């Protein structure tokens, strides 16, 4: 029997009442884990994610060390209880791919040359998933890296755009991701408050060149809003630390 596809847009609004260019509610908190060098908790809609950064620290096994720069490792992991059908623990093809593209998005932003022979480990744990986890994870990882004091060229800020019932919509949630016509996660390098380049771009489904242009504009608009929330989270963490010192 074929599954019935729900209407995703009714009277110009999305299932959760959002406009096409509206993000889900976002909450970001830096420095949530005591034992990590840097950490971050993020909620983007129903996604709940923790990022932890360790390093720069000595790399083991030693033969992996690079005498000219730090090596970056990124592990994306979904908790078994994070999705509707229990996720089998451990890496799978999807999480290995997400870890790889996310590491590649972050690597050029980290000033690796400043930390020869060392390693920077980034762990992201998805506690609850509702579409757009790879982008939410990158947002959290970026804040956690800054929280760890890792020197960076800028901030990585990520958001997905989808095509749903012929409309281009920002930050799709699960139903839109499942039943939509396309899903396009973006990550941007933002420097001095300006989008400098695209750090990640993937595409699942089909979009015309015109729609893709529109998707990019929408993603940039959403990314600037997320960037401000990332910055606020870092500022709050630093002012908290200052108060503690006083
Ligand atoms: O999470 P993201 O959109 O970056 O990646 P995806 O592969 O497009 O997955 C979309 C969503 O499908 C995830 O966010 C989860 O909510 C869900 N999913 C799931 O229910 N079970 C899995 N094993 C993997 C993903």
TrEMBL record:
<comment type="function">
    <text>Catalytic component of the exosome, which is a complex involved in RNA degradation. Has 3'-&gt;5' exoribonuclease activity. Can also synthesize heteromeric RNA-tails.</text>
</comment>
<keyword id="KW-0269">Exonuclease</keyword>
<dbReference type="GO" id="GO:0003723">
    <property type="term" value="F:RNA binding"/>
</dbReference>
<dbReference type="InterPro" id="IPR027408">
    <property type="entry name" value="PNPase/RNase_PH_dom_sf"/>
</dbReference>
<protein>
    <recommendedName>
        <fullName>Exosome complex component Rrp41</fullName>
        <ecNumber>3.1.13.-</ecNumber>
    </recommendedName>
</protein>
<dbReference type="GO" id="GO:0000956">
    <property type="term" value="P:nuclear-transcribed mRNA catabolic process"/>
</dbReference>
<dbReference type="GO" id="GO:0000177">
    <property type="term" value="C:cytoplasmic exosome (RNase complex)"/>
</dbReference>
<dbReference type="Pfam" id="PF03725">
    <property type="entry name" value="RNase_PH_C"/>
</dbReference>
<dbReference type="Pfam" id="PF01138">
    <property type="entry name" value="RNase_PH"/>
</dbReference>
<dbReference type="InterPro" id="IPR015847">
    <property type="entry name" value="ExoRNase_PH_dom2"/>
</dbReference>
<comment type="similarity">
    <text>Belongs to the RNase PH family. Rrp41 subfamily.</text>
</comment>
<dbReference type="InterPro" id="IPR001247">
    <property type="entry name" value="ExoRNase_PH_dom1"/>
</dbReference>
<comment type="function">
    <text>Catalytic component of the exosome, which is a complex involved in RNA degradation. Has 3'-&gt;5' exoribonuclease activity. Can also synthesize heteropolymeric RNA-tails.</text>
</comment>
<feature type="domain" description="Exoribonuclease phosphorolytic">
    <location>
        <begin position="22"/>
        <end position="150"/>
    </location>
</feature>
<dbReference type="GO" id="GO:0010467">
    <property type="term" value="P:gene expression"/>
</dbReference>
<dbReference type="GO" id="GO:0000175">
    <property type="term" value="F:3'-5'-RNA exonuclease activity"/>
</dbReference>
<dbReference type="InterPro" id="IPR050080">
    <property type="entry name" value="RNase_PH"/>
</dbReference>
<keyword id="KW-0271">Exosome</keyword>
<keyword id="KW-0963">Cytoplasm</keyword>
<feature type="domain" description="Exoribonuclease phosphorolytic">
    <location>
        <begin position="154"/>
        <end position="222"/>
    </location>
</feature>
<keyword id="KW-0540">Nuclease</keyword>
<keyword id="KW-0378">Hydrolase</keyword>
<dbReference type="InterPro" id="IPR011807">
    <property type="entry name" value="Rrp41"/>
</dbReference>
<comment type="subunit">
    <text>Component of the archaeal exosome complex. Forms a hexameric ring-like arrangement composed of 3 Rrp41-Rrp42 heterodimers. The hexameric ring associates with a trimer of Rrp4 and/or Csl4 subunits.</text>
</comment>
<dbReference type="InterPro" id="IPR020568">
    <property type="entry name" value="Ribosomal_Su5_D2-typ_SF"/>
</dbReference>
<dbReference type="GO" id="GO:0016075">
    <property type="term" value="P:rRNA catabolic process"/>
</dbReference>
<dbReference type="InterPro" id="IPR036345">
    <property type="entry name" value="ExoRNase_PH_dom2_sf"/>
</dbReference>
